[in-house]
Amino acid sequence: MKKSKIYTFISDTYRNNRGGWSRFLTISCKTCRTFLFHYQKDGSGPLKRCYIDRILNRKPKFQRNGFVFCPHCKVCLGFNEPYSKENNRPAIRWAVEAINHKILPISETTV
Ligand SMILES: [Zn+2]
Which end of the chain is more exposed for a tag (fewer CB within 10 A), N or C? Predict the structure, then answer.
């Protein structure tokens, strides 16, 4: 039997501070298109960083120097940059043009 898991939105102060509106994104490497993880994006606005607590699976590993690399093509994707405006909430700051994101349709939130 196939195991399935339904994503539900994490709802907390962070989400409320962004208007209580969220969607799921699929994050992938822009260079080689390797899937990286699913992500809950709260509020509108560009995706400059990803908060670790919103990564739904396969949390990326920071190297000792704080950088994150694509597990497939090894390109540098971003770096560890806690978000100071939210009590140093752990986050990845993406390098420019490093990742692709697309909206995950609700029908595909069962994985
Ligand atoms: Zn890659």
Answer: N
| pLDDT value of residue 7 | 87
Neighbours of ion ligand 1 (CB under 5 A): 29, 31-32, 34, 70, 72-73
Residue 6 is assigned to a structural domain of this protein: no
Cα–Cα dist 69/81, whole Å:
15
CATH number at residue 79: 2.170.150
* Structural domain includes residue 85: yes
String of DSSP letters for 43-59: SSS---EEEGGGB-SSP
> Residues 7-27: pLDDT tens digits?
899 999 999 999 999 999 999
Q: What token pair was written down for 10?
A: 């994490």
- How many Å lie between the centroid of ligand 1 and the Cα of residue 61? 14
Tokens of 98: 């490093």
Which domain range does residue 90 map to? 17-108
Low-confidence ranges of the chain (pLDDT < 50): none
- 4 belongs to a structural domain: no
